[in-house]
Specification:
This protein is of the alpha+beta class. Helix content is about 40%, strand content about 25%. The chain folds into four domains: about 10-130, PAS domain (Beta-Lactamase), CATH 3.30.450.20; about 145-265, Beta-Lactamase, CATH 3.30.450; about 265-360, Helix Hairpins; about 365-515, Heat Shock Protein 90 (2-Layer Sandwich). Its EC number is 2.7.13.3.
Length: about 525
């Protein structure tokens, strides 16, 4: 037979037997059948709880005193308490040592209101030996309790509906509420006696839950100081345990531990205020970013049209369609055209950034691209910049290296990395460009011979509008947009871009998924 669900009783029996290891506690229904049973009596009999559940007590108890134990159960079911003592010789039964069992019966009630009988039994041979030292142990407990630095209260409740009341408080709790330890010890928690300095409804509810055997035994509440101020505390309760009052009556006790949380609440308020301030600052920053993006987009659009006209007219002049130019005029117009192209690229970068900030996507082609050929074309585009600074490009292009993506976008990525390398490298320096396969991917690396990038700056080089300290000190041209657009384009190709720095300069590496067999070559004859 399976016992009905009695979680509260089960927890209580577990707590009792944990607190008093030599105590056996059994619960019986109206038919004198075992519902729960915990403790050493089972092992003395060579039984387990499963062996007795659902069986009548007269069938399980030894025949020599089965009738007397059954009478105890009857008394408890009738609402009376009763006790009895039996001497048992287990040598012939299980070979266990003999015992003198003191059995107490008390009435109990099931969750549905049905009467139950609660029996506890202890081998008083050992209990009486323990009782001999009880006075000394009690004195030690009281000394430790009274002098503990943690505020504590010992609560007790007798059998029946009586509310739990404080039977002892230590000096730390008395100091916390501005009282002396012997002031009104019988405070009534059931009435939530805040005026008495102990607790409001939070603590009363905590005690009630503990007495019901629940496990959520902590609460944040308030104590009232003798001067009328409220003290915030965190309270925790021990599980309830059976105990004996000084007058010999049985009762249930538990200990409340309280912790002053005044400083914690002050810290929490400060953190909450700081977090609210941070949120306000973040919202303000977000609005500024939106305004900046709108402004950049508007200005870029306004600049794009006149720049188109300027470049168109420069092309006409440089082609000689408006008349022959002398060498000085051609040189000056070529310089204007070069700077105008740089300004055009800046405008396009600003427009792209504004487009991305507004949630837009950059449209990319999706075709097979020989990245080595793209890298070679990008190197050709930047060749003039390198030549003007007396720099040398050292290429290592192991083509073809096929990837899937947008040739124009990838061209821009490599050109931007080469242009940056040229800016930071000294005049006459060397810029290295490599491209080739690497474990299912294609790697493009651009290495400069500049001063490198500080370790603290490396995580930010791909942030929008970010410029390194070296770029600012040397007044190098740029807006801090190029590398952020490089990162976005590479990510759109399902690739990665990273930056490393050392004593010989910085290296930017782009890694893209390789295409084993380009689509346009898949059907070609071998």
């Amino acid at each position: 037979m399976t016992a009905p669900a009695l979680p509260g009783w089960s927890a209580l029996l577990d707590a009792l037997t944990r607190q008093v290891p030599d105590l056996t506690v059994c619960l019986f229904d109206a038919g004198h059948r075992f519902l729960l049973c915990r403790g050493p009596w089972l092992s003395r009999r060579g039984l387990t709880e499963a062996d007795v559940l659902g069986r009548p007590v007269g069938e399980v108890a030894l025949s020599s005193f089965a009738r007397d134990v059954d009478a105890l159960v009857t008394a408890a079911l009738e609402g009376r308490t009763a006790t009895a003592e039996f001497a048992v010789d287990y040598a012939a039964v299980t070979g266990a040592p003999g015992a003198v069992w003191e059995i107490s019966a008390a009435p109990a009630t099931a969750p549905d209101g049905a009467p139950l009988a609660l029996l506890t039994c202890r081998d008083v041979v050992r209990v009486r030996a323990i009782d001999a030292a009880r006075s000394t142990s009690e004195r030690r407990f009281r000394t430790a309790f009274d002098t503990a630095p943690t505020p504590m209260a010992l609560l007790a409740t007798a059998a029946g509906p009586a509310p739990a009341a404080v039977s002892r408080v230590n000096a730390a709790l008395a100091r916390l509420v501005g009282r002396t330890p012997d002031t009104r010890l019988e405070w009534d928690l059931a009435r939530a006696a805040v005026a008495d300095g102990l607790a409001g409804g939070g603590l009363a509810g905590l005690v009630e839950r503990a007495l019901r055997g629940e496990t959520d035994l902590a609460v944040d509440t308030w104590l009232q100081h003798a001067d009328g101020t409220l003290v915030p505390v965190s309270a925790a309760s021990s599980p309830p345990v059976p105990a004996t009052a000084p007058d010999g009556t049985e009762r249930t006790e538990l200990v409340l531990l309280l912790r002053d949380t005044t400083s914690e609440l002050a810290t929490h308020r400060a953190l909450t205020e700081a977090l609210a301030g941070e949120r306000r600052a973040a919202e303000h920053q977000r609005r500024l970013e939106t305004l900046r993006g709108d402004f950049v987009a508007a200005v870029s659009h306004e600049l794009r049209t006149p720049m188109t006209g300027i470049l168109g007219n420069l092309e006409v002049l440089l082609d000689g369609d408006a008349g022959a130019l002398n060498p000085m005029q051609a040189l000056m117009l070529a310089t204007v055209e070069r700077e105008a192209q740089r300004l055009r690229r800046l405008i396009e970068d600003l427009l792209t950034t504004a487009h991305l900030d507004s949630g837009g996507l950059v449209v990319l082609d999706d075709t097979d691209v020989d990245l080595a050929a793209v890298a070679a074309a990008a190197a050709q585009e930047v060749a003039g910049q390198l030549t003007r600074r007396g720099q040398r490009l050292v290429p290592d292009l192991a083509g073809p290296a096929w990837v899937r993506g947008d040739a124009g976008g990838l061209h821009g990525v490599i050109a931007e990395l080469l242009s940056n390398a040229a800016k930071v490298s000294p005049e006459g320096g060397v810029v290295r460009l490599s491209c080739g396969p690497d474990d299912g991917a294609v790697l493009v690396a651009v290495a400069d011979c500049g001063p490198g990038i500080a370790e603290t700056e490396l995580p930010h080089v791909f942030d929008r509008f970010y410029r390194t300290a070296h770029a600012g000190e040397q007044a190098l041209p740029g807006t801090g947009l190029g590398l952020s657009l490089v990162a976005h384009t590479v990510a759109a190709h399902r690739g990665t871009v990273s930056a490393e720095s050392g004593p010989d300069g910085a290296v930017f590496t782009v890694r893209l998924p390789a295409v084993p067999t380009p689509t346009h070559l898949a059907g070609s004859p071998a």
